[in-house]
Amino acid sequence: MELKIIPIFQVIIAMVLMTLLQYLFPDFTFINSTTTSLAIIMLALALLIGFFAIYSFRKHDTTVNPTTPEESSQVVDSGIYQFSRNPMYLAMLLALVAYACYLQSPLNVAVCLVFIWYITKYQITPEERMLTKLFGQQYSDYQSRVRRWL
Q: Which helix (H) or strand (E) holds 9?
């Protein structure tokens, strides 16, 4: 597997980078009273999506461990997984967007974009190869029906 850094640590690294950007460029922010509200909404949405994603995996008795996709017991394509093939990663991204809104720095959008690129290249793509190998046409059909992110 190509995974270099487990996803939760990728989120932590991204948050540290966002905080550093805020510290290094404190004047490069926008002050808007709606950003805090938006941050709260995005974080709530991230938590809900993450909860339903993990719940669906538990309900189908398959692994949620991103380092062992080969231990997946079945393709989960119901619940939140009928809208996104990667709702857990989507939840992580929304949490990062929430933090970016909280910090009120447009520079942090770049960190979110790097997160999308990195997790797609080093986590999602290898997972998809493994799941195609494990489940064949069933997973390929799922890929053709449901988008990777949203």
A: helix 7-24
Q: Alpha carbon 113 to chain centroid distance?
A: 11
- Taking the mean position of all CA atoms in its chain, how far away is CA 42? 13
Q: How far apart are CA 112 and CA 110, in angstroms?
A: 5
Angle, CA of 102, 104 and 107, to the nearest 5°: 120
Alpha-carbon gap, residue 69 to 131, rounded angstroms: 7
- Give 60-116 pLDDT, tens digit per residue: 999 998 888 889 999 999 999 999 999 999 999 999 999 999 999 899 999 999 999
Distances from the Cα of 19 to the Cα of 15, 70, 87, angstroms = 6, 35, 25
What is the CB neighbour count within 10 angstroms for residue 91? 24
Q: How many CA atoms does the CB half-sphere of 116 hold within 13 Å?
A: 13
Contacts of residue 40, defined as CB under 8 A and 6 or more positions apart, other chains included, come to: 98
Residues 29 and 61: their CA atoms lie apart, in Å, by 45
CA-CA distance, 118 to 12, in Å (whole number)? Answer: 14
How far out from the chain centre does Cα 142 lie?
19
